[in-house]
Specification:
Protein name (chain B): Chitooligosaccharide deacetylase
CATH class of chain A: Alpha Beta
GO biological process, one term (chain B): carbohydrate metabolic process
Number of helices of chain B: 10
Number of strands of chain B: 9
Largest interface: A-B, 51 and 62 residues
Function (chain B): Is involved in generating a small heat-stable compound (Nod), an acylated oligomer of N-acetylglucosamine, that stimulates mitosis in various plant protoplasts.
GO molecular function (chain B): hydrolase activity, acting on carbon-nitrogen (but not peptide) bonds
Helix content of chain A: 40-55%
Shape of chain A: globular
Strand content of chain B: 5-15%
Structural class of chain A: alpha/beta
Family (chain B): Belongs to the polysaccharide deacetylase family.
CATH architecture of chain B: Alpha-Beta Barrel
Oligomer: heterodimer
Radius of gyration of chain A: 18 Å
CATH class of chain B: Alpha Beta
CATH superfamily of chain B: Glycoside hydrolase/deacetylase
């Protein structure tokens, strides 16, 4: 990015009208990907000078135990529903989960899910890091995920969405292909970086389960209805344009017993519709690059 | 700018949890729980019974639901008292009509101030869970340990004196603990606490004063979370509890007994415009084939799976 400039210079402006159409495999109109955040939060993390980890003095029992529910209960509830309806995950991973609870990571690997980095812990933030420190967490991410899963990470979602001005340049330099941190479009976009090639894949905050339940205070059925409306619109528009829909999840939210049933109906709906190319993030980036040379739009 | 180098040290990055309170465990790989009568879902109603002094304390923090206006905050003081005088009896009547014995998480100040109310609860066989002293009795790590120990003792001793039985369970205000709380509760002889929502069955914790069990009283399913914080309707609340029940009942077929905690607040659920929908939900539960309405102590007795 252009540090200090009023326009960070992340990408070229491209109006929604008049773009070349993206054609997804089998003529599908919308590429749908599910992004479970598999995270580990620390009970007593060190303080970052620019952001508090927990709202309360440590231990924040409600905050910590809510998130620990993911790794004891709700991961399997969410993952089984996804597998049942044919949705692989593209995992936003706190890579220290590979050390703490490898069973969760191994379960995801066995389901054929793709891993990208969401930092070391979701209680360690990038704000304030110097370049060497930021390189250390990128190298740690690559090394840790490779050792645990055999996969080489291709993407990045900044830990707790904390960035520095050099993050995108660095992940591109290390050969990562996509970022999930930019929310400007319903199609992939070329990101301007100093070296390498970086694609912004549409993730979503608006239909993220965290926003649905804790920003917009939706009921489980209202959130399910929101996802179906999002899908219906993007599938219809995609006939002319080719769109991407991401469903970003946290199992400790969507895997609660009052929410998982309505959510299963969403996956059933999308799988039965016929217009969705249900894919992993890397496959979507590859398919887009193959028809745009990665620099288009 | 750069961060202190220690920010990239991870001394507790290791196999298992980043603390020693409990080991990791996968709910779906544990030996199945068998509830009495072959029940699929243990429904655990817990009513929080609270007294808010009109002189609120912010040390260590102000409790949820506490006074909000400049002194004297008649509106919140009396609206909370409405729950205790009226709403609680609506909830008790609803449960007693279906023959259920439930848990009541009670400030010890309630027992001192309104002993006849506590006698009504105990006479029907409901269980009293200790719920601190009054709503100024919040706990966090900024509270000196000696003060926390005294607060726990005052609550337990007072409730024992008034009810004739020492409470076996503990619920902290806002589920907020210090690092010392599990140990202090174990030291005080408490059998179970309800503050951690990390699991859906009872989980054993280890402390320097011995073990204590946590029975999860899921805050996400509470009337405060759904009605007051998320501002959803009571009809939506009832539907969400039904959706949760159905899912858990289905899971029980494959994985053994499940739990559905119903955390209720008299000044929230006991209002005239909400109580009908809640009674309808209870009636729906009693029409299910394999429900069991239980107290915390009953869940503790049947809900610990054998160590693996």
């Amino acid at each position: 990015m252009q540090e200090g400039q009023s326009d960070p210079g992340l990408y070229d402006f491209a109006p929604w009208r008049g773009r070349p159409k993206i054609v997804w495999p089998q003529g599908k109109t919308v590429a749908v990907w599910v992004a479970p955040n598999l995270e580990f939060y620390e009970l007593d993390p060190p303080a970052n000078p620019l952001r508090k980890s927990w709202a309360k003095p440590h231990p924040d029992v409600v905050g910590y135990s809510h998130r620990d529910h993911a790794n004891r209960v709700s991961h399997w509830r969410m993952a089984d529903v996804m597998t049942r309806h044919g949705f692989p995950g593209s995992v936003s991973l706190s890579v220290a989960l590979c050390d703490h609870i490898p069973e969760v990571v191994e379960d995801a690997r066995q389901r054929g899910w793709e891993f990208f980095s969401h930092g070391i812990y979701n209680t360690r933030y990038s704000y304030g890091m110097d370049e060497a420190q930021e390189r250390a967490i990128i190298e740690d991410s690559i090394r840790t995920v490779r050792a645990a899963t055999g996969q080489t990470i291709r993407g990045w979602l900044a830990p707790a969405l904390t960035h520095t001005p050099r993050t995108l340049d660095l992940i591109a330099e290390y050969g990562l292909d996509y970022t999930c941190d930019l929310y400007h479009d319903d199609q992939p976009t070329a990101v301007k970086v100093k070296s390498g090639t970086l694609t912004a894949i549409p993730y979503s905050l608006e239909v993220n389960d965290h926003y649905g339940f804790f920003v917009y205070n939706m009921s489980p059925r209202d959130y399910a209805d929101t996802l179906i409306r999002q899908f219906e619109r993007l599938a219809a528009e995609g006939e002319a344009s080719g769109t991407v829909m991401c469903i970003p999840l946290h199992s400790y939210l969507i895997g609660q017993p009052h929410r998982i049933g309505p959510f299963e109906e969403v996956l059933r709906h999308i799988a039965a519709d016929g217009r969705a190319w249900i894919a992993r993030a890397g496959e979507i980036v590859d398919a887009w690059r193959a028809q745009t040379t990665g620099a288009g739009a | 700018m750069s961060l202190d180098p220690s920010y990239l040290d991870y001394p507790r990055r290791r196999r298992g949890m980043d603390h020693d309170l409990y080991p990791w465990s996968n709910l779906f790989e544990r030996p199945p729980i068998a509830w009495p009568g072959g029940a699929a879902v243990a429904v655990w109603p817990v009513i929080s019974l609270e007294w808010f002094p009109i002189t609120p304390s912010d040390t260590p923090f102000r409790a949820p639901g506490h006074m909000q206006t400049a002194y004297p905050d008649y509106r919140h003081y009396t609206a909370r008292e409405y729950g205790t005088r009226v709403g609680l009896y609506r909830l008790l009547d609803a449960f007693e009509r279906i023959g259920a014995r439930i848990s009541v998480a009670c400030n010890s100040a309630i027992a001192e101030r309104y002993p006849e109310l506590v006698a009504d609860i105990v006479a029907k066989g409901h269980e009293i869970i200790a719920h601190s002293t009054d709503m100024n009795g919040t706990i966090a790590s900024t509270l000196p340990v000696e003060e926390e120990r005294a607060l726990i003792a005052t609550s337990l001793d007072t409730l024992e004196r008034v009810t004739g039985a020492r409470p076996r369970g503990w619920l902290s205000i806002a589920r907020s603990q210090s690092f010392a709380t599990p140990r202090l509760l174990a030291e005080a002889g408490v059998a179970y606490m309800c503050d951690w929502s990390h699991d859906e069955l009872p989980v054993r914790f280890q402390t320097d004063a011995g073990p204590i069990v946590n029975i999860p009283l899921n805050h996400e399913l509470s009337d405060r979370q759904i009605l007051t914080i998320q501002q959803q309707s009571v009809d939506s609340y009832a539907q969400q509890m039904q959706d949760a029940y159905r899912w858990l009942e289905h899971e029980a077929n494959s994985y053994g007994g499940r739990m559905l905690p119903l955390h209720l607040t008299p000044y929230i659920m006991g209002l005239p415009y909400r109580i009908d929908a809640f009674e309808t939900l209870l009636a729906w539960i009693t029409q299910q084939d394999r429900y069991w309405i239980a107290t915390g102590t009953e869940i503790l007795r049947h809900g610990m799976s054998a160590p693996r």
